[in-house]
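Treating backbone geometry as a discrete language has practical consequences that deserve illustration. The amino acid sequence and the backbone structure tokens for this protein are reproduced below.
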Amino acid sequence: MSGLTHIDADGRARMVDVSDKPSTDREAVAEGFVRLAPETLELALSGGGRKGDVRAVAEIAGVMAAKRTSDLIPMCHPLDISKAEVAVEVDAGRLKVTARVRTTGRTGVEMEALTAVSVACLTLYDMLKAADRSMVIEGVRLLAKSGGRSGDWVHP
């Protein structure tokens, strides 16, 4: 692993200069899970909660978060995102959130995909907390990225 790109020679934080990098097609996929009680899962799936369709709201929140990542993570570049897709599905008794983000640019969209997943999971928690405060957000991770100088990467 090379040195940290967001730290200069004096140990100070800096935004990476990408002005000399070529613009390429880039994509990142991330996932995360919300572990919850079976009754809370049923409530989430029914769409009958007081706050409405929690999965749809979480998916929208994730897309919005991907677009605002540079406002939340200090050294992230503002990006022209061409696609941000967030899906909430059931997986082994949990809610699984998956985000796929694309751009054509000089820097990748890994942070945008991870931010989308994180905010979607937080939104699920917010909307379901009245029924279950013991929910756990877990397993937020990058699954894959493509494009750029470092090429493709898939989680082992």
